[in-house]
Hints:
CATH topology: TIM Barrel
Number of helices: 10
Radius of gyration: 17 Å
Strand content: 5-15%
Low-confidence stretches: none
Oligomer: single chain
CATH architecture: Alpha-Beta Barrel
CATH class: Alpha Beta
Strand order of the largest sheet: 9-8-7-6-5-4-3-10
Helix content: 25-40%
Distance between the termini: 20 Å
Order of helices and strands: HEEEHEHEHEHEHEHEHHEH
CATH superfamily: Aldolase class I
Shape: globular
Amino acid sequence: MSEETRQLLQISEANPHIRRLVRIGSMVVGGSRPVIIAGPCAVEPAYVEQAMSCAGAGIDALRACLFKPRTHPDSFQGLGAAALPLLAEVRQRTGLPLISEVLAVEDAEALGESVDGFQVGARSMHNVRLLEALGELGRPVLLKRGLAATIDEWIAASEYIRRRGNDEVVLCERGIRTFEPRTRNTLDLNAVLIARELTDLPVIVDPSHAAGNRDWVPALARAALAVGADGLLVEAHPAPALAWTDSAQAIDVAELTELVIATVVAAAGR
């Protein structure tokens, strides 16, 4: 971490009127350069090689989801705690922070120190008891907007975490369910601007779940950077068509590298 970033962290923690910087391992969200968190939707048996490939693109942190809430119970639900050794190897080999989704406080306890931050998915945004428990654990939380949540409801959900003493929260816009069926969800870029006015928390965007189609992800990602998003959460895979989950929306490593370059360009223009 640079001395400038260290000073900004101290200032943001001391002054609630200044935009908060959230540190997740070695990554700082909310600074001058947008960050990229990327990797397969779910950890697969070949996760080490996949993560190494994504890390080579120059990203800031890795998706490391062992528990997956799927719409249908017959769908792949994640490898679970049995895959913790894969996370340990990836962390040792890449040095990158790991962020993993949790469905219940038991998941967070199982992950323990194996990850650097917890993700609350769209389906869990209204799980008040989970939010409160994560607040008490005090670890960084990436909070996705619910499937049909208003911006005010989304921010209210973050308060359940913060009022238990944990201000290390990153908001994530991932598209909401509307009447439009052509995309998986409708990406609400207004939410980035409005959330930044209503709270001091950093706001990132997940263009993958908004699009549902890998061809549209890069353009939506660049649009998010253009409106001032503090980063991107992207599903990426060395062989997207072979991904165990959400293969249609995963981009390849070459496209991921282009997005990393886009964050550098965006930072230069801010």
